[in-house]
Amino acid sequence: MIQLLANPQRFMDFSRWFTPIVAVIAAGLLISGTAIAFTVPEDYQQGDTVRLLFLHPQLATTGMFAYGCLAVSAFFGFVFRHSLADAAARAAAPIGAAFTFLFLVTGSLWGKPMWGTWWEWDGRLTSALVLFLIFLAYMALQASIDDEAKAARASNILAMVGAINLPIIKFSVDWWNTLHQRASISLTGESGLADVYLLPFFLTMAGYVALFGALWLVRIRAEVWRRKAGALQVQLAGKA
Amino acid sequence: MAFDFDTGKYAFYVWGAYGITAVVVGWMIAASLMSAAKWKREAARLQAEKDAPKQASKTQP
């Protein structure tokens, strides 16, 4: 796998057929999961807002997963100075920012009817906003430095430092008093969700993560072509 | 299995959340595909430009 990822040409050959497969899987999971989400019974406390249980946590997980992918790519780019890792980090940022934006907006739209407020400066909500701001800072830093190698190096450092925010978001509901409830789903213990909600919950969860995967691959491909175009431009300018 | 799209008094919140997600996801898909297509075209164009003089010089006597 590392061999495959280390070679841009091999990555392009592989992603050309792999990306559409991931996209089809994402579409299938999202359509079926969202359809089932509108057939399950209303929650006795939450009423119809339970439909957001199949949207908001998924967007939250995908936004954080996207940042994890960015940070791991940044690590490989920083340590091994690998151009494809830099491309992968750069490609993950705008998609992750968009998912995190949706994570915040849908959370706010769920908070208003359930908590009576659009926003509260508590641990979970603030750390989620910080995640969004780190995505923006990463993109702004990259855009502000003309030399691409230097821009990649500086933004990779920012991405790695920013990764500290991921466990803070995850455990904020345990560490601090917050409006947000604790995790309802646990891999090891009992789940707090009714069984009828589990299938659409996990279908949409896998669907949004797969959607990120497909978009990420498309954007890495775009980034490889962009770099190729940049290199060709330099060669052509040198000849002229 | 019947669909229940009636979200009652929570319609604004539920459909607002799904609506904005659809818009942003749609925009993300379109922007990503268009960016990939643009750079693929640009790289191919520059490659052709780089190869062109070589072919031209070959044909010259």
Question: What secondary-structure arrangement, pairings included, does this model have?
Answer:
The complex is a heterodimer of chains A (about 240) and B (about 60).
Chain A: H1 2-6, H2 8-37, H3 56-80, H4 83-115, H5 123-144, H6 148-162, H7 165-175, H8 195-239
Helix pairs in contact in A: 2-8, 3-4, 3-6, 3-8, 4-5, 4-8, 5-6, 5-7
Chain B: H1 11-59
What does it look like?
The complex is a heterodimer of chains A (240) and B (61). Chain A has 240 residues and is an all-alpha fold. Chain A is globular. Chain A is 78% helix and 0% strand. In chain A, helix 3 packs antiparallel against helix 4 and helix 5 runs antiparallel to helix 6. Chain A has eight helices and no strands. Chain A has one domain. In chain A, 39% of the residues are buried. Chain B is mainly alpha-helical and 61 residues long. Chain B is 80% helix and 0% strand. Chain B has one helix and no strands. The model of chain B has no long low-confidence stretch (mean pLDDT 88). Chains A and B meet through helix 4 and helix 8 of A and helix 1 of B.
Order of helices and strands of chain A: HHHHHHHH
Biggest beta-sheet profile of chain A: none
Number of helices of chain A: 8
Number of helices of chain B: 1
Greatest interface and its residue counts?
Answer: A-B, 39 and 38 residues
Q: State the total count of DSSP E strands of chain B.
A: 0
Number of domains of chain A: 1
Helix-residue proportion of chain A? over 70%
Assembly state of the chains shown:
heterodimer
Q: Mind telling me the C-alpha Rg of chain A? A: 20 Å
Q: Strand content of the residues of chain A, in percent?
A: under 5%
Q: Please outline the major beta sheet of chain B.
A: none
Mean pLDDT rating of chain A:
91
N-C termini distance of chain A: 40 Å
Shape of chain B: rod-shaped
Strand content of chain B: under 5%
Uncertain segments of chain A:
none
Label the structural class of chain A: mainly alpha
The geometry of chain A reads as: globular
Distance between the terminal alpha carbons of chain B, to the nearest Å? 77 Å
